[in-house]
Amino acid sequence: MGMLRWGAHLLLLLLLLAAATWTCAGAGAGVTSEYRRKLEATVDMPLDADVFRVPPGYNAPQQVHITLGDQTGTAMTVSWVTANELGSNTVRYGSSPEKLDRAAEGSHTRYDYFNYTSGFIHHCTLTGLTHATKYYYAMGFDHTVRTFSFTTPPKPAPDAPFKFGLIGDLGQTFDSNSTLAHYEANGGDAVLFVGDLSYADNYPLHDNNRWDTWARFVERSVAYQPWIWTAGNHELDYAPELGETVPFKPFTHRYPTPYRAAGSTEPFWYSVKIASAHVIVLASYSAYGKYTPQWTWLQEELATRVDRKLTPWLIVLMHSPWYNSNNYHYMEGETMRVQFERWLVDAKVDVVLAGHVHSYERSRRFANIEYNIVNGKATPAANVDAPVYITIGDGGNIEGIANNFTVPQPAYSAFREASFGHATLEIKNRTHAHYAWHRNHDGAKAVADAVWLTNRYWMPTNDDV
Ligand SMILES: [Fe+2]
């Protein structure tokens, strides 16, 4: 009898335990996608691939790319490379290809990197532009002229719609090409690029010719719409063994950012205001400790320069993610999270975008800001003021996919999948934005993860369930 009663108690206990476990798992458990891409090597496209082709014509401008030349897009900085000789620094621009009635004079730079010498790298800022207007522009006037176009972003306004493309860790493999093609098919207005561009540093001697091939590869998009640059670890090109001890040398020579317009003192952290979005770019590989220039700048930015009435959407870009449940690059973003997370939660940041980890992950609105050295409270907790963290380092570079997630999936993680792809963030008005992640192995329009985001300032509802 006694044994039987014991057995009944044990059974009851087991049932209760099972129910509790099931309840925990069922209460908003995140999804670790079972989707597995076809196993194949992630290899760079060969140097004679059509996407790397040098444009025809003597000294033809190549590697054309644009980014904002001021904070809102009434200026646009055009960059390009000439390989044979310096050529002209002039950009002509206007409202039609036949009427390029304005001209801007740029400057040029070159750099050496170990045994490599760059071409002539031109930068020219077109100023006095009107918002939401299409412009044609041309350069290469001494020799081979090439003509492109772009549309300036809408003037900052609380309900101005805008569609961002979100791409990170792109590289120049066949998968990179697929990512870019999918993004082009989905048609964003500008790209928020979260760092790691060419992966030239994976080649012997950091072969900087791969910086050139990468720029020719992405020209088909970035010559026609601004990409907002974040510096990743593959932009460091710090190689004392080669005598190259100036960090970011190729990146800073090639990819200007409008940091001065944003009150910053370095090109690696700055902000832009595009339509209804205020976008802050942070630098994972520059100092961010208390009293450093980046720390001081961000404090002032959040306190005095963010205006949610004018630009309701507050988006932060960085390379190394703060919330990453992949064993690759695990906790590398932790020191910056400790430094800045409370500021972002207090500021009600809508979305934080990062790269670095070569897979995809989206978080719920969680924060881990209660901890101090004596209270031990170090568990991320649901927080309606917290941003959604998105890791989008799945552009498709040569290092391959990061397919080693931590188990179990942490409570803050809503969806994660080890696939290549890109995302779009389509802001509709001051309250709603539609976020969608596109996996490369589906059709361009197919969405593998999507969520409607509500604005943290104007409509802070529970949008993550
Ligand atoms: Fe990285």
TrEMBL record:
Annotated family: Belongs to the metallophosphoesterase superfamily. Purple acid phosphatase family.
Organism: Oryza glaberrima
A Gene Ontology molecular function term of the record: acid phosphatase activity
Start and end residues of each Purple acid phosphatase N-terminal domain: 61-152
Signal peptide: 1-26
Enzyme Commission identifier(s): 3.1.3.2
Pfam family, one: Metallophos_C
Catalysed conversion reaction: a phosphate monoester + H2O = an alcohol + phosphate
CDD domains per record: MPP_PAPs
Lineage top rank: taxon: Eukaryota
Name of this chain's protein: Purple acid phosphatase
Keywords for this protein: Glycoprotein, Hydrolase, Iron, Metal-binding, Signal, Zinc
Occurrences of domain Purple acid phosphatase C-terminal (ranges): 386-445
UniProt cross-references to InterPro entries, sorted A to Z: Calcineurin-like_PHP (IPR004843), Metallo-depent_PP-like (IPR029052), MPP_PAP (IPR041792), PAPs-like (IPR039331), PAPs_C (IPR025733), PAPs_N (IPR015914), Purple_acid_Pase-like_N (IPR008963)
Domain Calcineurin-like phosphoesterase residue range list: 162-360
